Protein 1
Amino acid sequence: MYQFQQSSSAQTKQYAEGSFQRVGVKLQGRLMLSNREEFDCLVDEMSPGDAVVQCDVAPRNGERIIAYLDHVGRIEGTVARITEGSFVLQLTAPERKREKLAAQLTWIANKHELGLPEDRRHDRLQPRRTRTTLALEDGSIQPCRLLDLSLSGAAVDVESRPPLGTAILLGSIRGRVVRHFQEGVAIEFNRIQTRESLAEFL
């Protein structure tokens, strides 16, 4: 089982230098640039000291960023390095926040299937209508079969699996692909749904 080391003063410096070991995650969120513009983002890797962030807009080196991530909450920091399609965010946080973040990341790292039906934050629902469509950002529409459904996401059987992080429409509900599996993809909805908003499937 993965486990971060406990924090100490020396380790706090290690966090600040961004040398603490990152873990692979797929955390969706929304970030705000220093000019207060907001964009969707996806964090691929994270440690208590930094995070690798994917976003459609590239910030400036040294720019201050605030982000809100699923399962983690608010983080903030400065852009330390920019690469093609992503950037490294050096986190700014007191020791107590870093310790909490280390515990959160330990929990996430030890979950075998983040965002999957068996690891949902909400109970499964029994869909009555399983035939639906998956619409992609490029306008293409794929028929798919609903395998699993909850207020926070779904699993669908689809022939062509969109890349991780792809924004989609499942029927009329917006979400993002968070995992691939043999039959298709797992989707996390952009917001928690109600039974009424899922009526098209129930």
Protein 2
Amino acid sequence: MIKLYPSISILNGKVTRLTRGDYSHEKEYEKSPVDFAKMFEDIGIEVIHLVDLEGAIKESPVAYHVLEAIAGHTDLEIEYSGGIRTDGDILKLFEHGAKYIAVSSIAAKNRELFTSWLFSYGREKVSLSADASDGKLLIKGWQKKTDIDLYEFISYFYNRGLKYVKVTDVTRDGTMVGPNFELYKDLVGKFPDSKIFASGGVRSADDIQKLEDAGVYAVIFGKAFYEGKLTLNDLKTFIK
């Protein structure tokens, strides 16, 4: 059964959702990150995807207090993403309660360093975030477009033992228009030995079912839940 990874995006300590990664189109939610985390834990969710929006821009993690609070008040496993650049960042995140990390920008800038992390920390703990628009990679909190081809980028690390790949179609993120199903079907076919995570555009339980049917390992969702389009009861149907 497909894995569910709720995304809790943090900006200035608040749960905040962007549309297509645009920081000028942000929406804050009243509930605290811990409150949302507890809601997910109560229905059987085991892992959350914690996104440090400010850290992604500053190129250094800053939401340690949120990470520590969720780790201290729940038994959830936490995957942290945003601003990770050094071994020191990784060790500090693990010390504050992160179980896993997801890395994007530094993998694009320094492939050798990211490859070394796959070996030193283990491919169970380190995943690649490959976020793209029109097939080209976006980095630095999706604010900078590169000329790096999405498939070439994934293939480089796939050939070096990468296990977990989180792919976001940024043009659909926060839009609730539906995932790019063809993209994920293609990725599952091209990288059969990796676990593909789909992110961006999810709007309903039907979308999640279609991603499962396409062979996607896990789905990362956010806005659809916060806006009431995807309910806790919807999510329960995908939890063993």
Protein 3
Amino acid sequence: MIDLSQSGAVFTLTMNAGENRWNTTFVRAFAAVLDEVEASTGAAALVTTSADAKFFSNGLDLAWVRDPAAHPEAGDREPFADEFMKLMARIITFPIPTIAAINGHAFGAGFMLSLCHDLRHMRADRGFICANEMQLGLAIPAPELALFRHKLPLNVFFETVQLARRWTGAEALAAGIVQATASAEGLLSAATARAAELAPLGANRALYRGQKEAIYGENGVLNGPHGAAWMLRHLDHYSH
């Protein structure tokens, strides 16, 4: 479901569950791999990608959300929202540099995952990133809106969350959503090379995480009294 490899100072987390839709089982598998990475010491960086050529992550496991009893392998529905949001907060404040190598479509929760990384590299020729909740008739929770607002320019934020715009790689690069694009064949190697450049910043884990907390955590410096990570950890404080 989630594979982990390491080459030098770079860890590669590969989602290997088809469309990589999010349910409680997937959240917990992802968190367990992050535990392995976080147990390491010294210079390090993390690249997250998908084994599927078409999908980075296709968002929520909607079949399970609609009928959890029919999909017991996906886990208990009740703790999902809290555990998923806390996982996203953990990724935002992860103590080493992180890059999402978006090799296919990233919709909804999959797009959210990519935004939680420090940097995003996207396939240039195919694939969309999109917050498609509006199209699905779903409200975006306030903590998730805060994440999008913190990570995107204002005009891009509105088109993304309110108009459900689908961004190609070239459009996402021009809009500042992603920092680089590459061919399907070159995407992972480019992201890995950039991660290797940034890995020395991860040697001081306390400093690297601490500054992220200053940006995104409680009383974060961006856009209000609380940052996206604090809001994601405290979903119960917001109506949804």
